[in-house]
Amino acid sequence: VQLQAYGGGLVQPGGSLRLSCVASGDSLNRYGLGWFRRAPGKEREFVASITWSGSAYYREFLKGRFTISRTNANNTVYLQMNELQPEDTAVYYCSAGRPQPGHYWGQGTQVTVSS
């Protein structure tokens, strides 16, 4: 499974971004998909995940601002990020695994929140 993430960029505090990650190379049947991030000088951390059937899980303090979704027909997982803050600045990685994400990783996309 190969994963390609898109949608990162520079956004002002309070703004929004939508990340996309397209999987190729295998059907995502029964794969869990997820997003992780690594901020400068910090360890990689879990952001959100979604099961094959659509059950979503979030890092507690991101719930309400971030929304994960997936479209199985086109092997894509999304992360809608609202009310972004400077502390959300990080490289965001998508991941896939069966049944939990963490086995396959994309290359990451940079999100920078700054005025």
Write the SSE topology.
Blueprint: E1 2-6, E2 9-11, E3 17-24, E4 32-38, E5 45-50, E6 56-58, E7 66-71, E8 76-81, E9 90-97, E10 104-105, E11 109-113
Parallel strand pairs: 2-11
Antiparallel strand pairs: 1-3, 3-8, 4-5, 4-9, 5-6, 7-8, 9-10, 9-11
Radius of gyration: 13 Å
**Global morphology:** globular
Average of the residue pLDDT scores: 94
Question: Proportion of β residues?
Answer: over 45%
What string, H for helix and E for strand, traces the elements in order?
Answer: EEEEEEEEEEE
Beta-strand segment tally: 11
User: Roughly how many Å apart are the termini?
Assistant: 37 Å
Largest β-sheet summary: 7 strands, mixed
Number of helices: 0
What fraction, in percent, of the residue positions are helical? under 10%
Instruction: State the secondary-structure class.
Output: mainly beta
Task: Name the poorly predicted regions.
Answer: none
Description of the molecule:
By secondary structure, this protein is mostly beta strands. It has strands at 2-6, 9-11, 17-24, 32-38, 45-50, 56-58, 66-71, 76-81, 90-97, 104-105, 109-113.
Task: Summarize it.
This protein is mainly beta and 115 residues long. Helix content is 0%, strand content 51%. It is globular and about 40 Å long.
Which tags fit this structure?
115 residues, mainly beta, 7-stranded mixed sheet, 4-stranded antiparallel sheet, 11 strands
